Amino acid sequence: MDKAAILDRLTVPSLNRLWLPGFLLVLLLGTVTVSLSLGKYPVSIHEILLFLRQQVTGWPALEAERYDLLRNILWEIRAPRIAAAVLIGAALSTSGAAFQSMFINPLVSPGLLGVLPGASCGAALGMLLSRGWFGVQLCCFAGGLLAVAIAVGIARLYRGDRLLMLILGGIISGSLFTSLLSIVKYLADPYDTLPAIVYWLMGGLSLADSHTVLWISVPVVLGIVGLLVMARYLNVLSMGDEEAGSLGVNVSLIRFWLIFFATVISAMTVVVGGLIGWVGLIIPHIGRMLVGPDNRILLPVSALLGGLYLVVVDDVSRLLLDIEIPLGIITALIGIPFFILVLKNARKGWG
Amino acid sequence: MRNFSLQAIVRGALLVLLAGGFLLPLVGDAAAREVVDMVGRRIDLPEPLQRVYVASPPENHLSCMIDPSLMVGLNFPLKDRDRKYLPLDLWRLPVIGGFFGLGHTPNLEVLLRTKPQLVICWQKNAIDAQFDDFLKRSGIPVAYMTLEALQDYPRDIRAMGRLLGRPRRAEELAVYAEETLRQILPKVADIPKSERVRVYYAEGADGLSTDGRGTWHAELIDLAGGLNVHEGDVEDLYGMEKVSMEQVLLYRPEVILVQDPTFFQRIYASPQWRRVPAVKNRRVYLIPRIPFNWFDRPPSFMRLLGLKWVARILYPQRFPLDIGQEMREFYRLFLRSELTAEDIRIILEKPQGENHG
C-alpha cells in the first residue's frame, strides 16, 4: 500500500459516499414502523395511525379500552422487542466489523475472544444460583468480561505475534467457558433450570421488556459510538502493527479500547437476547461489499444493516409459525448458507 | 424412652435384613419370584427383593413412596429444602442419575456399585435400548414400567407394588388415587366447553413456553375441567413449546399456572402481561414443588394432590376443598411426613403471615 492510499484513508470520506448510510437509516426506520404493525394480535394500520395521532395530539380517537390495549401491544410488547432487535443487531455487527478490521481477518466474529461463551456461562450460573432475573443479567455480563479478560491475559503471557496470541487466547478462553457451561448445565435441575438455560442459549427476545431495553440501551449506544469514534484508528491498525506504529499510533492502547467497547456491547446482547450467532460475522461482509473497507463508513453501515437484519429476522421468528422460533436458530439457518456463498469472495473488497 | 426402644427395634430389624442380604447369595436363588412387567415380559426376581434402581423420575418417585428402603440410588440430588419431607432412607442414597430427556443418562459405574437386583425403566428411545443391553450384559434383570396418564395410576400403582413385592402398601396408595379421580373427574365432566375456565400453563423464565391441550405435561388442566388455551398439536415427550406474548393475549387465559418462580415474581409487575385477564384478576398461581412438583416435570404421583389443587383453583364452588387439610392427609399417606402449619406455608411458597387457601 502506498503513502497516497494511506493518506486517503485518513481524510474525511467524500460526501457521495454518505448517501448509503442515509438510505439505510431511512430503510431501518421504515422497517421498524412496519414491524410495529406486525404481530399475532390483529391490529389494523388504520387503528395504529389513530392511536399514534391520539398519542401525539391527545385528541381522543379511540375508546379508552381499545386505546389501552393498543398501548399495551404497541408500546409494551412490540416496541421493546423491536428496539432490542435493532440494538443487538447493531451491536453485534459493529463489534464484528471492528474485530474483522483489527484482526485483519474476514472470518472473525465478535465472539472471537470468548465473550459469548463467557456471557452464556455467566447467565447459566446465575440461573443455577437463582438470585432473581437481575442477578442472572449481572452474572451474564460479568461472565462475558471475565472471559475476554482471560483471553487477553493469556495473550500477554507470551511474546510473539500479538494478534495470533490474542486469537489463541480467545480460543482457549472460549473453550474454557464452554466446558464450564456444560458443567453448569449438568449440575442444573433437569426440570427447572436446565430447560431455562437451553432456551436462553437458543437466543430470543421474548424477555426484552421496556425496562431492560432502556437500561441496556445506554451502554450499548455508548459502546457503538465509542467504536465509531475509533474507526479512524481502526483503519490504521488494519494496515498491520508496524505500519500503524510508524504512523505514531499507540497500537496496544487503541487495541485495548477497541476490545473493551466490543466486549461490553457483545456481552450486553447476550444479557437481553441470549446467544444470537452469525450476525456479527455476515453483516460486516455485506457492509464491506457495499462500501469497501474504510471503517469510518463501514462501521456505521454495518450497525444499520445489523439492526435492519435482526428486526426482519425477529419478525419472521414472531410470525412464521404458531409457535415462536428461537431467534438464534433462524440467524444460524440464514447465516450458514450465506457464509458459504460469501467465503468464495471473502477477500474481495478487502484492502 | 419409647422412642429409643423403637429405634433399637428398627436397628435390629435392619441388621437382620442386612445379614439376610449377605447370606442370601450363599443360599443361591432357591427363592425366586416370577413377575410380569408392563409389556408382558416374564422376569425372575430374587426373593426377598431388597435393592432396586428406578431409572426415570416419575416411576422412581412412586417407588420411593411404596418402599424407600428398597431404593439403591436417586435420579438427582435432593435439595435441602425438600429433604425434610422425604423418608430418611432416601437421604444418604448415592445419586445414580437417570433419564430425563435432553440426553441425561445414569452413571453406570455408580449403578453397578450399588448392586441392584432389579432395574425398572421405560423404553422410549435409542439410548434406553443401549442401557438395556448394558444391564443384560451385567446380568441385572430389567422390568419395564411406565407411568403416564393419571387416570391409569390406580392400575399402575398396583402393578408397581406387585413388581416391588409390596402389594399391600401399593393398594393403600392406589385406593387414594381412585378416590381422588372419582372425587374430581365426574364433577367436571358435564361442564360445557364454553364455560370451562381458560387456563394457560406458563413455563420457562419468560413464561412463554407451554404445553398444550391433551399433552402429558399439562394433563391436570384437562382432568380438572379447565380449558388449556394452547392447542398443542405437537406430540412430543419433552414438551415446552414456545409461544409469543401476543398469542397469550389472544388466548385470554383466566387462570395462569406458573412453573418458574422467578417468572412468578415478575409477572404482576410486567407491563407486557398486565392486560392478560388472569393477571388483571390476580389469578396467577405458582405451582408448589416441595418435595416434588405437584403438576409436571416430573409428572409424578404428586399430581394426585395437584389435581385437587388445580380443581380448587379453577372451580372453588364445586370443590370447596381445604388444601391445607388435603396436604396433611396426602403427605402423611404418601411421604409419611406430618405437616405443621408452617410447613404448609413453606410448601405453598406463601410469604410469611399469609394464610393458605
Distance between the termini of chain B: 39 Å
Q: How large is the count of helical segments of chain B?
A: 15
Computed Rg of chain B:
22 Å
In terms of DSSP E residues, the strand content of chain A is under 5%
Spans where pLDDT lies below 50 across 5 or more residues of chain B: 19-30
Biggest sheet details of chain A: none
- CATH fold naming of the largest domain in chain A: ABC transporter involved in vitamin B12 uptake, BtuC
Write down the overall mean pLDDT of chain A: 87
What is the share of helical residues of chain A?
Answer: over 70%
The total strand number of chain B stands at 11
Helices and strands of chain A: which structural class? mainly alpha
Strand content of chain B: 5-15%
> Which chain pair has the greatest contact?
A-B, 37 and 38 residues
> In angstroms, what is the radius of gyration of chain A?
21 Å
Structural class of chain B: alpha/beta
3D shape of chain B: globular
CATH-defined architecture of the largest domain in chain A: Orthogonal Bundle
Percent of residues in helices of chain B comes to 40-55%
Number of strands of chain A: 0
The H/E string of chain B reads HEEEHHHHEHEHHEEHEEHEHHEHHH
Task: Describe this structure as you would to a colleague.
The complex is a heterodimer of chains A (351) and B (357). Chain A folds into two domains: 171 residues, ABC transporter involved in vitamin B12 uptake, BtuC, CATH 1.10.3470.10; 76 residues, no CATH class. In chain A, 76% of the residues lie in helices and 0% in strands. Chain A has 15 helices and no strands. In chain A, α5 runs antiparallel to α8. The mean pLDDT of chain A is 87. Chain B is of the alpha/beta class and 357 residues long. Chain B is built from 15 helices and eleven strands. In chain B, α7 runs antiparallel to α8, α8 runs parallel beside α13 and α13 packs antiparallel against α14. The longest helix of chain B has 26 residues. At the A-B interface, α4, α6 and α8 of A face β9, α10 and α11 of B.
